[in-house]
Structure to design on (567 residues):
């Protein structure tokens, strides 16, 4: 156990190092102002990292599938469709003029609402989990094709605005929205942590979990609601960053060598923090602010995930 | 006591169980036998509330399985299915420890740890205790899952073909362990078996199913007769008695 614990502390140290670097590297000018700006951005990064990591662990546990991401539920595709539709209807300037609080709330409610409307009836009718995921995947395809249809119709100048809104952006998060996001993410994370032992049992699949006293359909509904909430909050706050989850969970599992949630949940969250905060710091100070973090995470994450798949060995 | 009354089951218009009524006493090893598609696994999964009860009533020790909270039932009855499926990064000891989940919701006491060690030793898993499930063979994994069910400490154990994947040595050991659980610990074991010779050697009671109906129900001596076996499986087998032990020669 202590070897595993040491690995968790390693991940914690790495995350802390990235946080310190993010706050301290290249400080100049009005210190209070710069620090406040950086702290806000840090909070956004940490919140999204934790939400995505926890949501991915939960979804993979429920489905018993280690290569799924919450994006299979189609929520990020719905977010993109919403952004595109707004640019299409209001134009680039009109889109930029909408109150960010309104945008956040509308995106959050739309994602949670669609998740509840589509997934709850399926769960209530005791249909299989895979049918539900397939429904989510199909919805995702529908939303994506509608998005690309609208994107073809809009003005090229507006399209540039849309491009900016389609990738995660951590620089322009408002403080008041951040507070809402942090509260929701913290609530979701605490709930997941309290469920950690039940999650270990859920990972065994419906038959074994039921035999051990889990009320399967009720537990699954609760966990999926948690996933939808976490994904919706982080997406509404900064934009889609779902692929990150796949990579950090795989890394956490590789690092600790266990699927027990008491270890996996914190390790995945810590690695996600290290990746996002460290990546942002590197981009900003190492590469002179070139490139958006969202794009880089998707690119490096994809390569890393392929590497993990290729080197996965059966011990 | 397991009481089954008027239980019926159908899927997409196909009837799998017709109006099954059965009472199984406590403290016996009961074998469910019958040809493929007889409804043995379905009946077992209904008793274990792995699928919703469509018609009829099932009660275990007086607890109706469709209305008792899952957690309460998990201290009375457990089940192990054919396809255990899971093979992740989880050590055998961790898996067996999950058997204590209904009692402590994941927090292990010293008493729990002693029970886990006992289960590991009993199922010959001590040497494998720290190995990951994904590194085990099918038979070893099967034993780990049965050890988890044992560790759960329930009075009723439902096992769906636990001898699958086991070699003769471990199949015999498994049946002897189950026998011992019945005799020395007063547990009740309901087991789906395909090899009727294991039923002949170890069961107190045999329930024979065919086409979703109970064809016969009684002691091995009553059930394992040439005529009844022909009615069940559709061909004549030779039933011998060697040193007082029934032996069915079901292959030519």
């Amino acid at each position: 156990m202590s070897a595993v614990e040491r690995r968790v502390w390693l991940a914690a140290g790495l995350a802390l190092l990235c946080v310190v670097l993010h706050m301290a590297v290249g400080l100049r000018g009005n210190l209070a102002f710069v620090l406040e700006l950086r702290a806000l951005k840090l909070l956004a990064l940490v919140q999204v990292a934790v939400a995505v990591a926890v949501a991915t662990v939960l979804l993979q546990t429920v489905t018993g599938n280690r290569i799924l991401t919450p994006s299979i539920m189609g929520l990020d595709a719905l977010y993109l469709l919403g952004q595109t539709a707004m640019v299409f209807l209001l134009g680039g300037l009109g889109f930029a003029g909408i109150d960010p609080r309104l945008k956040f709330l509308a995106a959050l409610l739309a994602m949670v609402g669609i998740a509840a409307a589509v997934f709850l009836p399926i769960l209530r009718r005791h249909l299989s989990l895979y049918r539900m995921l397939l429904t989510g995947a199909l919805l995702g395809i529908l939303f994506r094709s509608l998005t690309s249809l609208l994107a073809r119709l809009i003005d090229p100048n507006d399209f540039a605005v849309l491009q900016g809104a389609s990738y995660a952006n951590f620089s322009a998060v408002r403080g008041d929205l951040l507070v809402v996001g942090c509260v929701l993410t913290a609530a979701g994370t605490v709930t997941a942590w309290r469920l950690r032992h039940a999650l270990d049992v859920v990972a065994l699949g419906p038959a074994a979990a039921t035999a051990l006293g889990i009320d399967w359909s009720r537990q699954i509904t609760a966990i999926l609601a948690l996933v939808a909430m976490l994904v919706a909050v982080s997406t509404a706050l900064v934009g889609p960053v779902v692929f990150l989850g796949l990579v950090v969970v795989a890394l956490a599992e590789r690092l600790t060598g266990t699927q027990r949630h008491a270890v996996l949940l914190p390790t995945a969250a810590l690695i996600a923090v290290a990746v996002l905060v460290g990546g942002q710091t590197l981009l900003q100070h190492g590469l002179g602010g070139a490139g958006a973090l969202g794009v880089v995470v998707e690119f490096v994450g994809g390569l890393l995930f392929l590497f993990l798949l290729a080197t996965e060995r059966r011990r | 006591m397991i009481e089954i009354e008027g239980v019926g089951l159908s899927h997409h218009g196909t009837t799998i169980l017709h109006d099954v009524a059965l009472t199984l006493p406590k403290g016996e090893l009961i074998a469910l036998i019958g040809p493929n598609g007889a409804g043995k696994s379905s009946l077992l999964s209904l008793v274990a509330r792995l699928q919703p009860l469509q018609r009829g009533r099932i009660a275990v020790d007086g607890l109706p399985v469709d209305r008792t909270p899952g957690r309460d039932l998990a201290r009375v009855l457990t089940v192990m299915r054919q396809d255990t499926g899971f093979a992740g990064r989880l050590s055998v000891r961790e898996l067996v420890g999950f058997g204590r989940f209904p009692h402590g919701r994941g927090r292990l006491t010293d008493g729990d740890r002693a029970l886990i060690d006992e289960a590991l030793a009993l199922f010959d898993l001590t040497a494998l205790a720290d190995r990951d499930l994904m590194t085990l063979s099918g038979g070893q994994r099967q034993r780990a899952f049965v050890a988890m069910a044992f560790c759960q400490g329930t009075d009723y154990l439902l096992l769906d073909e636990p001898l699958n994947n086991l070699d003769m040595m471990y199949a015999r050991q498994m049946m002897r362990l189950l026998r011992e659980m019945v005799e020395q610990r007063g547990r009740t074991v309901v087991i789906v078996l395909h090899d009727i010779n294991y039923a002949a050697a170890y069961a107190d009671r045999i329930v024979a199913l065919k086409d979703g109906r109970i064809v016969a129900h009684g002691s091995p001596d009553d059930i394992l007769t040439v005529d009844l076996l022909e009615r069940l499986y559709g061909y004549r087998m030779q039933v011998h008695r060697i040193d007082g032990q029934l032996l069915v020669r079901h292959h030519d």
About this structure: Chain B is about 35% helix and 30% strand.
